[in-house]
Amino acid sequence: MKFGLNQHQKETADFAARKPLPINRPIYHSLARSLNPLNQKEPSYFPSLIRVSTGTAIVLGLAEGKLDAKPTTVYLMTYRSGKCTANCGFCPQARGSKSSAELLSRVTWPTFPTLNVIAALGEGFRQGKIRRVCIQALNYSDVFADLEAVVKGIKREAAVPVSVSCQPLNRANIELLARAGVDRLGVALDAATETVFNRVKGKDAGGFYTWDDQFRLLNEAQAVFGKGNVSTHVIVGLGENEKEAAAAIQRCVDMGVLPALFAFTPVRGTRLEKNAPPPLEAYRRVQVARYLITNGLTRVNDIAFNEEGEIVGFGLKSDVFEEVINSGEPFRTSGCRDCNRPFYNEKPGGPIYNYPQELNRQEIREARSQLKRD
Predict the structure, then answer these.
(1) How far is CA 54 from CA 103, 110, 131, 244, 341, in A?
(2) Between these two residues, 335 and 143, which has the higher pLDDT value?
(3) Is the alpha carbon torsion for 96, 102, 103, 104 positive or negative?
(4) 8 A C-beta contact, residue 160 and residue 120
């Protein structure tokens, strides 16, 4: 078996109500007519603004700038004038955060007219510039009406796969998103253990999420979208150890949920702004564990850990391990197909936690050396 030739394709295959703002009339022109090809009665509302990651805006021609790595997915975020109603300690969008409302992780998300963005992403998809759309959703009372309208608009403009990352709260919202045309749903765990979860985004953080509800929603999402079409996020560096991170990844995989790995990124103005990001060596080991587990090459019970919960062996034959590491694939951005999230967790100058493109030989050698404990 060959590893790493196309990680995102293999992993995905293996895991086989707001009243939006009034339409901005100056931009409601030919695209609006294309969204209503039968000349039916014009919708009386549509979310007029949406946030777009800076890299996406540059790729779509909505902004000017130079990119060290171009995103292959269009990254959007629902817009509201205030913050999210949740209160996750790591998130700039949290209710109690003092960070800019334009931030998510370390990425800036400026606002653009929604219909202009839909037109641009449709053209970008037809030109082969982008391969997928991923919409990040804040929590607010009418977010699912916004999501429904935006997804339907995108699907009428282009046959592009659409993923939504949100907290659906109940099955009715999951079914609404499926009917709107969402292809894949992400429900973020973020934390690897219930204790960490409660501290950073649950009851101890002033949030309304619960650990058990997240897993219930993941199961309900699979019932609606089908096994292989549901994802989650696990953030490394929130206080878990490597064993706990690997166990969370294994639990998700056993459910049929694809876990994407993120490195905790301290952002000024958030409750966790003074916390440090994870040691690169620990993150590399969890990356390898995730890759092996999601590809069925090992299980958490086969991985060896020391008393501190650090990984000391992956339960793999040396020749298989060498092939995996030499591919460089474990160290690339993980998650849905065609998602590369350039510099979401890091500055272009490094250190690089998730490589947004194929690693060269020098980068693979560096990543290999970072697996070792001091």
Answers:
(1) 10, 7, 17, 34, 11
(2) 143
(3) positive
(4) no
The pair phi, psi for residue 295, each rounded to 5°, is: -95, 10
The answer to whether residue 16 scores a pLDDT higher than 70 is no
3-state secondary structure of 58: helix
User: What CA–CA distance (Å, rounded) separates 255 from 283?
Assistant: 23
**Per-residue pLDDT tens over the stretch 275-332:** 999 999 999 999 999 999 999 999 999 999 999 999 999 999 999 999 999 999 999 9
Domains within the chain, CATH numbers bracketed: 10-276 (3.20.20.70)
Q: What are phi and psi of 262, to 5 degrees?
A: -125, 155
Closest of 215, 218, 235 to residue 227, by C-alpha = 218
Structure tokens belonging to residue 31: 């695209």
What distance in Å separates the CA atoms of residue 52 and residue 63, rounded to the nearest whole number? Answer: 10
3-state helix, strand, coil in the chain (%, to 5): 35, 15, 50
> What is the reported pLDDT for 99?
74
For residues 328 and 363, the answer to whether their CB atoms sit within 8 Å is yes
Query: In the chain, where do the E strands start and end?
Result: 49-52, 73-78, 103-104, 107-108, 111-113, 132-136, 162-165, 184-186, 230-236, 258-263, 304-305, 311-313
Tally the residues of the chain.
374
